[in-house]
Specification:
Order of helices and strands: HHHHEEHHHH
Pfam families: Bac_export_1
Structural class: mainly alpha
Largest sheet: 2 strands, antiparallel
Family: Belongs to the FliR/MopE/SpaR family.
Membrane topology: Multi-pass membrane protein
Helix content: over 70%
Number of strands: 2
Keywords: Bacterial flagellum, Cell membrane, Cell projection, Cilium, Flagellum, Membrane, Transmembrane, Transmembrane helix
Protein name: Flagellar biosynthetic protein FliR
Strand order of the largest sheet: 1-2
Oligomer: single chain
Radius of gyration: 23 Å
């Protein structure tokens, strides 16, 4: 009897790990390159073990053929990728905002590593990404992500095909929302840039003998960084609120 139960138990656990592990590889904060792969793997295995007694009842019909087993495994991975990448799109809001802010402050030439893609981005974007990851864990939003993982089995049952159309619509709405939030975060600096360069133009007209551009760049950077320091809390609150709203759509009511 035990010999018959063990293979089925192991296969069900592998199906759970396929979805949970894939989600941990693509979700914000957990998927950052600064998080070691071994740490992500350990967290995914631990979470899968905790999920097993909660969702194993959905796996009543275990495929009896190799083709069926591979198809079930592939379906779980695809569902996790669709969910995780849709949520991951939220992080583009920070990159949009950081690039716009850096351009307004004259810091677009200062480049640094991108934690999400491993490429290059503005240094301000690197700082905001690190700050966002820190705040996700400080504000316990990672627990909301784990709750969304559990509720994904109710929204996307094991024995049903995922609604590709609904997920595609959600992804497009997430991209639109990311652009909206990114523009909202950068809006104070866009207004500041317009006022600063308008004042600079008036000053150059009133005092033609003054080399305004020699004082413009350091003044622009200094005032802009001071403004960023004052508004940083509010800006990150907007971002975290948007991320929580997106995650809430995967929480079964």
């Amino acid at each position: 009897m035990l010999i018959e139960i063990l293979p089925q138990t192991a296969f069900i656990f592998m199906l759970i790990f396929a979805r949970i592990g894939t989600l941990f590889m693509v979700l914000p904060a957990f998927s950052e390159r600064g998080v070691p792969v071994r740490v992500r793997l350990a967290i995914a295995l631990t979470t899968s073990l905790m999920m097993y007694p909660l969702v194993s009842e959905q796996f009543a019909q275990v495929p009896s053929t190799l083709y069926g087993a591979l198809a079930a495994m592939g379906k779980e991975i695809v569902v996790a990728l669709l969910i995780g990448l849709s949520i991951k799109l939220v992080t583009s809001a920070l990159q949009i905002a950081a690039t716009t802010i850096a351009f307004q402050l004259g810091l677009s030439f200062a480049m640094g590593p991108d934690m999400s893609t491993g490429g290059q981005t503005v240094t301000l974007g690197t700082f905001m990404s690190v700050l966002a990851v820190t705040l996700i864990f400080v504000t316990d939003l990672h627990y909301v992500m784990i709750a969304a993982m559990y509720d994904s089995y109710e929204l996307f049952p094991v024995n049903e095909m995922p609604p590709i159309g609904d997920i595609a619509q959600f992804a497009s709405e997430t991209v639109a929302g990311a652009f909206l939030v990114g523009t909202k975060i950068a809006a104070p600096f866009i207004v500041y840039g317009l006022l600063f360069y308008f004042g600079l133009g008036l000053l150059s007209r009133l005092m033609p003998q003054l080399q305004v551009f020699f004082i413009a760049m350091p003044a622009n950077i200094g005032i802009g960084l001071l403004l960023f320091m004052i508004l940083c809390t509010t800006l990150m609150t907007w971002y975290l609120g948007h991320l929580e709203e997106v995650l809430g759509r995967f929480i079964a009511s």
